[in-house]
C-alpha cells in the first residue's frame, strides 16, 4: 500500500485539558509519522492551550495557528486551506484516534479514486463514569463503497446523520473545492457531510476507530442552564439558516433542500418553545408553510416529529412538569 502524506486538522477552543491526548493519539498511529502533518487552528482560546502545546510547537511536531475567535466553521476552513496531505482527517480537540485509524482509512482511499469520504462508528466515552459504548450505525451502509448522493438521501429521509466530527476524513482534492461560510458555525460537522457526499463515493467501516468523549464541557451537555440554552440555541438557529442559504445558492437537489427547509423551520419552533414564546400564530404559520407549501409525505412527518410542533405551549408545560428532567434534543439533530 502506498503511504501518501496525510493531514490531520484540529480546530480547538479552550480544550487545554484534552488536546494533548488528541495529538498524542496521532503520534501513536501505526501510519508513518513522517507522512502525517498535524495542523492545529486555535480559535481564540483563553485557557492554557498554547502553553500545553508549546513543546510540540518548538519541536515542529505540529503546526499551530492562533486566530481571533470566529467560530468552529471558520477555524475548520482555515485549517483545511493549510493542508498539504492527499487526505484530510478531522479530529475534535476533546476526542482521540485509535492507533490503526489512519492506516485503515488510507488503505480504503487508495483502493478507489472515486471515494471522497471515509468514516466509521465511534466509541463513545462518558468521562464522568468512564462508561464506553459503541455508536450504532445502520448495517446496510457498513463495509462497502456507497454512492454519496444515495447515502445523503438515506440519511435525510430517515432523519439521521453519521460520519462527521472526529470520524470524518475526506479526499483533499474534493474537500478543498468547498467554500465553508463562517455562518455555518455550530453545524460545521453536518455541513461537511452535506457538501462532500455529492462529490463521489463514501465508505463506512463496521468497527470503531475513534473515541468521542462526552464531558461537562460538550455543548450538548453544558447547555443545561436555560440562559445558556437560549444563547447557544440562538447560535444553532443562525447556523442552520447559513447551511440552508448555502444549499439554496448552490442548487442542491430539491428533495434534500425540501427536508432541510423543514429542519430549519422546526428548529425555529423548538427555539420559540425554549423561550416560552411560541404563539398560536407561530403554529398557524408553521402549519401553512410545512404542510401546505413544502408538503412532506407522511413518512417524513413521522420521522421528523412534525406534528409535535403543533402542540401549544400550555400542553408542553404540562408534559414537562410531569417529566422535569426531559430535555428536548431535537434542536440538535
TrEMBL record:
The keyword Transferase applies. InterPro entries: Glyco_trans_2-like, Nucleotide-diphossugar_trans. GO terms for molecular function: hexosyltransferase activity. Gene3D superfamilies: Spore Coat Polysaccharide Biosynthesis Protein SpsA, Chain A (3.90.550.10). Residues 7-136 form the Glycosyltransferase 2-like domain. The lineage of its organism: Bacteria, Pseudomonadati, Bacteroidota, Sphingobacteriia, Sphingobacteriales. This is Glycosyltransferase. It comes from the Bacteria. Keywords: Transferase.
Amino acid at each position: 500500500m502506498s503511504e501518501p502524506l496525510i493531514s490531520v486538522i484540529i480546530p480547538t477552543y479552550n480544550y487545554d485539558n484534552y488536546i494533548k491526548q488528541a495529538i498524542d493519539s496521532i503520534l501513536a498511529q501505526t501510519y508513518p509519522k513522517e507522512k502525517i502533518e498535524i495542523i492545529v487552528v486555535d480559535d481564540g482560546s483563553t485557557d492554557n492551550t498554547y502553553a500545553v502545546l508549546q513543546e510540540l510547537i518548538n519541536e515542529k511536531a505540529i503546526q499551530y495557528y492562533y486566530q481571533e475567535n470566529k467560530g468552529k466553521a471558520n477555524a475548520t476552513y482555515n485549517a483545511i486551506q493549510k493542508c498539504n496531505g492527499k487526505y484530510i482527517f478531522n479530529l475534535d480537540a476533546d476526542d482521540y484516534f485509535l492507533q490503526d485509524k489512519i492506516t485503515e482509512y488510507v488503505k480504503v482511499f487508495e483502493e478507489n479514486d472515486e471515494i471522497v469520504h471515509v468514516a466509521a462508528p465511534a466509541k463513545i466515552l462518558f468521562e464522568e463514569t468512564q462508561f464506553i459504548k459503541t455508536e450504532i450505525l445502520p448495517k446496510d451502509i457498513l463495509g462497502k463503497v456507497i454512492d454519496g448522493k444515495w447515502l445523503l438521501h438515506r440519511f435525510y429521509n430517515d432523519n439521521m446523520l453519521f460520519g462527521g466530527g472526529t470520524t470524518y476524513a475526506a479526499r483533499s482534492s474534493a474537500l478543498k473545492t468547498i467554500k465553508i461560510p463562517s455562518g455555518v458555525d455550530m453545524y460545521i460537522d453536518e455541513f461537511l457531510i452535506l457538501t462532500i457526499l455529492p462529490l463521489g463515493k463514501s465508505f463506512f467501516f463496521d468497527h470503531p476507530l475513534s473515541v468521542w468523549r462526552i464531558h461537562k464541557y460538550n455543548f450538548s451537555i453544558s447547555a443545561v442552564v436555560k440562559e445558556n440554552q437560549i444563547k447557544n440555541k440562538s447560535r444553532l438557529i443562525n447556523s442552520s439558516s447559513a447551511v440552508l442559504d448555502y444549499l439554496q445558492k448552490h442548487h442542491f437537489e430539491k428533495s434534500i433542500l425540501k427536508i432541510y427547509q423543514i429542519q430549519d423551520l422546526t428548529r425555529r419552533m423548538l427555539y420559540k418553545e425554549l423561550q416560552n414564546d411560541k404563539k398560536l400564530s407561530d403554529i398557524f404559520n408553521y402549519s401553512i408553510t410545512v404542510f401546505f407549501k413544502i408538503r412532506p409525505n407522511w413518512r417524513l412527518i413521522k420521522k421528523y416529529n412534525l406534528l409535535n410542533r403543533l402542540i401549544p405551549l400550555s400542553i408542553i408545560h404540562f408534559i414537562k412538569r410531569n417529566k422535569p428532567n426531559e430535555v428536548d434534543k431535537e434542536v440538535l439533530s
